[in-house]
Write a structure and sequence with these properties.
By secondary structure, the protein is of the alpha+beta class. It contains three helices and three strands, in the order E-E-H-H-E-H.
């Protein structure tokens, strides 16, 4: 079962199906991305953050239906136009965060 998220980025409209709920290895990937971003500290830029997120979280994607952007691998995600790239990664990471929190809340509490 996956979760469909819809891109609000005008340059790259469409949907992505992400793993939901995440498996233990997928949660580890999510946590690794956060740790790596934190380790950059104040030196991180939006582009570096996007590259870290893409490399680390790309395996969470089950299905790719983004128009005008074939499913990129780790090495060929476009770097420009910067505004669209920033918007895409901000949106993608927010959706991964939201899915993680939703799954966390579904766990029954004693």
């Amino acid at each position: 079962m996956g979760k469909i998220i819809t891109s609000p980025v005008k340059r790259w409209p469409g949907t992505i199906t992400i793993a939901y709920p995440m498996t233990l290895p997928q949660v580890a990937l999510y946590q690794r991305a956060i740790i790596e971003i934190i380790e950059y500290g104040d030196k991180i830029t939006a582009i570096i953050q996007g590259a870290v997120l893409w490399r680390t979280l790309r395996p969470l994607i089950e299905k790719w239906n983004i128009k005008k952007l074939p499913f990129p691998n780790e090495d060929n995600f476009p770097g420009y136009p910067k505004k669209a790239v920033d918007e895409f990664f901000i949106w993608f990471f927010k959706e991964i965060n939201k899915a993680h929190k939703e799954a966390e809340e579904e766990v029954p509490k004693d």
